[in-house]
Amino acid sequence: MTKPSYLRWLLLCALVSALPGCAKRRAPNIDDFTWNTIGWERLYYWDGSRYQGSFDRTFDRDGPGTYIYPNGDRLVAIFRDGMVVGRATVLYADGKKYVGEFRKNRLAGKGTLFYANGDRFDGYFANARRVGRGIYTYASGGQYTGEFNNDQMTGSGVLVYATGDRYQGNFVDGKPNGLGRMTFANGRTTLEGHWEDGEFAWPLRLRF
Fold first, then answer.
1. Is the pTM value of this prediction over 0.90?
2. Is residue 3 assigned to a domain?
3. What are residue 11's phi and psi, to 5 degrees?
4. For the chain, what is the domain count?
């Protein structure tokens, strides 16, 4: 009996090691990624995004990994069955950074968004937009505490300017709108009444 060649021995070993996973592996979804998959560490998708990390035998993201979007944004998270589990971190290509909760692979729940200019938002998100009550802190020193809707300061809130001036009242799309009261740090007359598009429109009461 002749001894098997070294090449035949290597092929046999490769076949034996691959057999246990064959029964559990389903055919890859061609809509999800190309056939340029490299080993078990990296996947390339049709839209130009890619994933680096751990995934299971069904090609779902599973375990720690980084998903890189076509625009360069990076999602660092723990995945289960292709979905983000719990909190995650997003490093945006434009310099922003998000640390917080995810739901159905979308930025949602409680989190903190750091802006490239030094501003910061602490609060709640839905579909990657600011909603509910939150705190927006400006790098210049001002701070808004109040309600958000559709990513804008909308509803009741308090805005303290870097100068020390303070507005308390209603906001629409980031500007004082409706009833509100402005007090000035330098002792100027307090303005209380109705505001329109950030400007004082008519007084409810004037205090001296």
1. no
2. no
3. -65, -40
4. 2
Domain with 194 in it: what CATH number?
2.20.110
* Euclidean distance between CA atoms 194 and 207, whole angstroms: 15
Asked whether residue 115 is domain-assigned, the answer is no
pLDDT of amino acid 72: 95
Mean pLDDT by runs of 10 across the 208 residues of the chain is 46 44 37 37 85 83 90 93 92 96 91 98 95 97 97 97 96 96 92 93 66
Structural domain containing residue 42? 26-85
Distance CA 133, CA 122 (A): 9
Residue 17, domain member (yes or no): no
175 vs 92: CA distance, rounded Å = 27
> What's the start-to-end Cα distance of the chain, in Å?
111
Give the number of other Cβ atoms within 10 Å of residue 67's Cβ.
Answer: 23
Measured from the Cβ of residue 160, the count of other Cβ atoms closer than 10 Å reads 17
pLDDT given at position 205: 59
d(CA 49, CA 149): 30
Q: Distance of CA 102 to CAs 14, 37, 184, Å?
A: 40, 27, 40
What local confidence, expressed as pLDDT, does residue 4 receive?
A: 43
Q: Is residue 176 part of a domain?
A: yes
